[in-house]
Write a structure and sequence with these properties.
By secondary structure, this protein is an alpha+beta fold. It has 14 helices and 23 strands. Bound molecules: ligand EPZ.
């Protein structure tokens, strides 16, 4: 097992480019199962989760060509099985995003039940509610779920999501594109990754309207063709580097970031007194010699403040003047990083789903764990300003979702290295 060692090295400075979005590329790759023609996905980030997704596509019989860096060509001309591989699902719960495409393409799918994870139970009841609304039968057992379309295939209907679940919206979208008639998803997730998926599907011949709003309308078609599509930039990686500039009181150009996708992060950094400007190449963040103050954060589904930036932002708030609060409304257990930040002297307290961050702390280096993908990034951010060395273990979490994480931080002046645990 490897770990990351970080030492404070003063304000970060320079420029960093954001890679393709993890949470966009995974459903985009799953969507290639909907056609027997070749799909070409570009700007694919080199992530552990992408490697799992490619193995998953091959598991279903698709031909996957990733010989060119950043490009993945998928030809799912024959689907050899509709059974998900339990090890792959355990390795990455987002593998469940193959349910919709397989149900649409083959009328049948057997998916091992994904485990929960450190941030929550992560149920899939809303995904299954959507499939049932399209006429499928769902049989749940201890370790798997079997979904079978009706005699004549899936039939469009109106589906209300009790919560604007990203995964459920993606799965239902991909099931509905080949259903007979029209489907309407009400209270749909509005994340940019949903729009990116709808854009690919429409390039493939789907008829989807108003993705990105809370009501998505899909007119079923009989088949889909191949397409070429570039992944949108990763808004969470962008936010992470914006916070790296803020916490070290440095200045950074975050290139390839889309300001429209990170509005809550820009707003909250400005509230704290950080200078943030939208420029031609991306977003410029300047926190040099600025008195920074507390703010209050409440995570919400998009376009609200993103839950995935909650822990990195909390690390930053430990260093500003005054008391901040962070309320996590999306996941039921996403404060695991509080214990780790407190090992570094953050003195954070939590009550239910609210954390109180006293602020004004000079953190001290410590041995800490990455408790989830984003919390791992938060611990590295804290290590950038702590006195003494911070050792972050369980960094496989980080490598799931950040391309060239250590290399990018080194390029902007961080004193950081990856070492093997032993
Ligand atoms: C996606 O997860 C992202 N993952 C998560 O990013 C992100 O935090 C989350 O959306 C919210 O933005 C990918 O896109 C691969 P949800 P997803 O379904 O789809 C409840 C990261 O760090 N829920 O919107 O699983 C659920 O329990 C990861 O990159 C149900 O109750 O999120 C949670 O409390 C972490 N029933 C809430 O909805 C369901 O059927 C949000 O979940 C589905 C979800």
């Amino acid at each position: 097992m490897s770990k990351i060692l970080v030492n404070s090295n003063g304000p970060l400075h320079g420029e960093v480019s954001v890679s393709g979005a993890k949470n966009a590329v995974l459903p985009l790759l799953a969507a290639t199962l909907l056609t027997e023609e070749q799909c070409i996905i570009e700007s694919v980030p080199d992530l552990a989760d992408v490697k799992v997704m490619k193995k998953m596509l091959a598991n279903y019989g698709a031909k996957v060509d990733d010989s060119e860096e950043g490009i993945v060509k998928v030809t799912a001309d024959t689907i050899t099985t509709v059974e998900g591989n339990p090890e792959l699902v355990q390795e990455m719960r987002a593998s469940t995003v193959a349910m919709g495409p397989l149900l649409a393409r083959c009328g049948h799918v057997v998916m091992p039940m994904p485990g929960g994870c450190t941030i929550g139970k992560r149920p899939i009841d809303l995904h299954l509610k959507g499939f049932k609304a399209l006429g499928a039968t769902v049989v749940e057992s201890e370790d798997k779920v079997e979904i079978t379309a009706g005699e004549g295939g899936l039939v469009g209907d109106v589906i209300y999501l009790d919560f604007p679940s990203v995964g459920a919206t993606e799965n239902i979208l991909m099931a509905a594109v080949l259903a007979k008639g029209t489907t309407i998803i009400e209270n749909a997730a509005k994340e940019p990754e949903i729009i990116d998926l709808a854009n690919l599907l429409n390039k493939m011949g789907a008829k989807i309207k108003s993705a990105g709003t809370d009501m998505i309308r899909i007119e079923g078609v009989s088949r889909l063709s191949g397409a070429v599509h570039e992944v949108i930039p990763d808004r969470i990686e962008a936010g992470t580097f914006m916070l790296a500039a803020a916490i070290t009181r440095g200045d950074l150009l975050v290139k390839n970031a889309l300001p429209g996708h990170v509005r809550p992060i820009i707003a909250k950094l400005k509230e704290c007194g950080v200078k943030v400007e939208t420029v031609e190449e991306g977003i410029y963040v300047d926190a040099r010699e600025r008195e920074l103050n507390a703010t209050d954060i409440k995570t919400l589904p998009y376009p609200g403040f993103p839950t995935d930036i909650q822990s990195p932002f909390m690390a930053f708030l430990t260093t500003v003047n005054g008391k901040s609060t962070v309320r996590e409304t999306v996941f039921e257990n996403r404060f695991m990083h509080v214990v780790e930040l407190n090992r570094m002297g953050a003195d954070i307290t939590t009550e239910n789903r609210e954390a109180i961050i006293p602020g004004g702390k000079k953190l001290r280096g410590a041995k800490v764990r990455a408790t989830d993908l984003r919390a791992g990034a938060a611990m590295v951010l804290a290590g950038l300003v702590a006195t003494g060395t911070t050792e972050v273990s369980e960094i496989y979490h980080i490598e799931r979702g950040y391309e060239n994480f250590v290399g990018k931080f080194k390029s902007i002046g961080a004193d950081i290295m990856k070492v093997s645990e032993d």
